[in-house]
Amino acid sequence: QVQLVESGGGLVQAGGSLRLSCAAVGRTISSYVMGWFRQAPGKVGEFVAAITGTGDSTRYADAAKERFIMSRDNAKNMVYLQMNSLKPEDTAVYYCAAGWVYSVYWSDQRYWGQGTQVTVSS
What we know:
By secondary structure, this protein is an all-beta fold. It is 0% helix and 52% strand. The protein contains no helices and 11 strands. The strands form 2 sheets. Strands 2, 4, 5, 6, 9, 10 and 11 form a 7-stranded mixed sheet that branches. A 4-stranded antiparallel sheet has the order 1-3-8-7, with no helix packed on it. The protein is globular. The N and C termini lie far apart (40 Å). 34% of the residues are buried.
């Protein structure tokens, strides 16, 4: 069992930056693919970014490319999402997820955090 706890969300003005963190408790995450997903009010949840277990490969949704950077520190059992040049449309609850498939799909994730709210004002 892996428990994931996100932090770092908040209110930021458009153009600003936030760094989300995801702490894993209960088991080392080095063998898991980690991902970030988000869900805005009234919208379907969507993939944001994923990173392989070793951190040697990342993939991003088109909306996140060039602005977001996902990283991990397996020694600390942590995953991060650096978000730059934030836009109002980035407003959503952001979820950290762990699984065994390098996938963009919610259904492929095995463990989820409780989410952290990110609000970007215009």
